[in-house]
Design brief:
The protein has 284 residues and is an alpha+beta fold. It has a single domain, classed as Sortase (Sortase, Chain: A). The chain has seven helices and eight strands. The protein has helices at 2-45, 50-56, 63-67, 96-101, 107-112, 192-197, 236-247; strands spanning 116-122, 127-132, 155-157, 169-173, 200-205, 208-221, 262-268, 275-283. It is globular, with a radius of gyration of 23 Å.
Length: 284
């Protein structure tokens, strides 16, 4: 009797092991297939060589030096170097990523899928994907940009948002995959140093490239103010902004105003369906 029980237990354990191995194997297959599908999207859209752009930078970008170059008092400039008003020129900083991304061609992607809106990129994080929008928020949870079924899904905009990103708060969703793909790297924004190295989000469409600077990162409940799309009453948007900055686990020093457009990236936390990890940015 005991021998029979032991055999049954061994059989059960073996079945569980084989089942778990099969699930892990299938998941890796899905990840590899997803990588191939999205590499194809990069090639079709003509995503620029981001590594080359990174290498071309003379120094690591920082939030402060990108916004304003230090000025040398005129009294410290030798007389022979002083410029006359006619010779003086204003130096304007241009974002090499925004310039390169603005040249992308989305026609090839839209020929495959008309629901492609553009491209989303956070340099150096692995986030570089087509941005889609469907009539509901269910489709691209398990559908790639090509329309094939996959647990990898796609990066997609809230179905109620305006496709031109003109709303007060535009929400974009993506899975947090275990291999770090899709929105998997957003979890790193819990660290201040990661934000310093990767402060900007780029969204490119047929109208050009928009640049957003990240101002907050935190865990939010699915019913929190974070996911409000519009603000019809005076003062409501300021309450929303105050909530977002107060919840943030990083200190950015950036305080959006009521006139600013906000971008909210949302992914799962790995702790059930009631919370989301969000990274929020303001249009520059």
């Amino acid at each position: 009797m005991k021998k029979t029980i032991r055999k049954a237990a061994v059989c059960i354990c073996a079945c569980v092991f084989l089942g778990s191995s099969a699930m892990v194997g299938y998941q890796h297959y899905q990840y590899r297939l997803g990588e191939t599908i999205y590499n194809e999207a990069e090639a079709l859209a003509g995503v620029p060589d981001l590594d080359a752009i990174e290498a071309a930078q003379k120094a690591p970008a920082s939030v402060l030096t990108r916004i304003e170059e230090p000025q040398v008092p005129a009294a410290q400039i030798p007389a022979e170097q002083e410029e006359t008003p006619e010779e003086a020129t204003e130096t304007v900083w241009t974002d090499p990523y925004a310039d390169a991304l603005a040249a992308m061609d989305f026609a090839a992607l839209q020929e495959v899928n008309s629901e492609v809106l553009g491209w989303i990129l956070i340099s150096g994080t692995g986030i570089s994907y087509p941005l889609l929008q469907a009539e509901d928020n269910e489709k691209y949870l398990n559908t790639t940009w090509r329309g094939s079924r996959s647990s990898v899904g796609a990066i997609f905009m809230e179905c109620r948002n305006s496709a031109d990103l003109s709303d007060d708060n535009t929400i974009i969703y993506g899975h947090r995959l275990r291999n770090g793909a899709m929105f998997g790297s957003l979890k790193n924004y819990a660290n201040q140093s990661y934000w310093i190295q990767h402060p900007d989000i780029y969204i490119t469409d047929e109208e050009g490239c928009k640049t957003y600077t990240i101002f907050a990162a935190y865990e939010a409940g699915v019913s929190d103010e974070t996911f409000r799309l519009s603000f019809t009453k005076e003062g409501i948007k300021q309450e929303f902004l105050d909530f977002c900055t107060a919840q943030s686990v990083i200190e950015t020093g950036i305080e959006p105003t009521e006139n600013d457009r906000i971008l909210t990236l949302s992914t799962c936390t790995g702790r059930g369906y009631e919370t989301r990890w969000v990274v929020q940015a303001v249009l520059r």
